[in-house]
Specification:
It is built from 15 helices and seven strands. With 402 residues, it is an alpha+beta fold. Helix 2 runs antiparallel to helix 7. The relative contact order is 0.11. It binds zinc ion. The site of zinc ion has 8 residues, from loops.
Length: 402
Amino acid sequence: MQGYIDVLVNEDRIAVMGREYLLGELSVSLMNISDDVLKELAKNLVKLERLAHISREQHLFYRKALNTDEQRKLELALDEKIYLPKADEWLEIHKSVCCIAELMRTVEIGRAIIEPLPADMVEKMFSDIEYDSDEYRFSWIWYLELLDITMGFVEDTIAVVRTFRGLTSVILPGLKRYDVHHLAGAYHHLLFDDTFKGLAASTSDPDRLSYTLADYMILQYVPMLKPGGKEFTIAEYFRMDNLQAVLKTDLLRGFMKGHFPRQCEHCGRYFLMTKGYRTRFCDMPSPENPKRTCKQMAYAKRREKEKPSEDPKVQSYKRCLDRLNKSCTRGSITPKQKQRLVQLVEELYLKATTTPAFSNEEFEKALQSKQLYAQLGIASRSRGRPQKQQTEQTQQTTGKQK
Ligand SMILES: [Zn+2]
C-alpha cells in the first residue's frame, strides 16, 4: 500500500484505482455497510490505538502522504517519539490490520483501495532480527505507514457513513425537488444550518471522529473522450491520500449530475437515484424473497405502489415507446419493425417489473435503440445521415405532432 488513491472523474462516472463506477455508487454501497462490520472496525481501531500507542487523529502519514517525500516521512517518523512494540505485540497488531482489511473489503470502495494482506507478513519479516536493533526500528517504521493508513481508512469510514446516512435520511427527504440546485442546497444545510447541527460527524461526537471540511489532493485536468467514446471532455484526475476526499468527490460530484441516495421504505437499505423521482422502494432483491425486488414485495404485501410518475422504470418504458413512434413516423424503421420492437420492449418491461433482473439504470440501458435494434437484427435507416439533416427532421416531426 503506497497510500495514494488515484481517482478520475469523467462526466457522470468516477474511476477509483482503475475501477469505474457511476458517481454516487461507491458512497451508497458504503452507506449499506452492515452495522456489525462497523462495530468490528471500531473495535479493531481501539485495539490498535492501545497496542501501537497511536492516538486518534494524530497521524504520521495519513492525510500527509501527498505533502511529504520519502526522506521527510522518515525524519518525521524518527523525530516523533515512536513506541516500538515487542514482537508479540506486533503480531497482535498485524492480526487486527488483516482483520480490518478483510472487513473493509466487504464494501466496494474497500475492494478498490485495499489489497488483502498476507497473514504471515510480519512473522517472516522479523524472524531473525533483534528487538530494538536499527533493522527492527526501520522495519517498524515501514510497517507503521501501512498501519497508520489502515487506521485512517477506518476513521474516515465511520465518520463518512454517519454523515452521509444523516444527510440522506434527515435532509434529503425534505427537499421540494431533486434537482442539482436543491441537492446542493441540502449540502449547504448539512454544513452550515444550525437546525441540522450534529448531523455531520464532528470532534464533539463520543468517538471524536470528524467529517472534514477540506481535504488534500493533487488535481490534474485531462482532456479525454466522454464515456461512450464519441465526444471530448476535460476530465479531472485526482491523487488523494485519504478516504474522505474520495467519498466526498463521489457523492458531491454525483449531486452535480443529479445523482442522490435514497433510503428504501421497505428494507431500509440505501440506493442510488440518477433521476429526480421520489421513488420509495429499491429495486434490489428483497430480503424476504430474493426472486422479487423490494418494490414488487411492497406492492404485494401492502398494496403500496409507486406513483407512475415516480417510477423510473415506467418512465424509461414510456420514453422508449415515444422514441419508437417517432422513429417510425420519421421513416427510419418500418411499421412492421416497430411492431416487433414494441413487442420486445413489452417483454423486457414485464421482466423488469416482475423479477429483479434489471436495476433502473440497467433497464434504461437495455431500452436504448441501439441495443433493441441489435437484438432484432434491425439496421436503422437513419444511420450514416449527416447530423444536421437528422436534427431538422426530428424537429419537423415533433412540430407536426404538436
Ligand atoms: Zn429495499
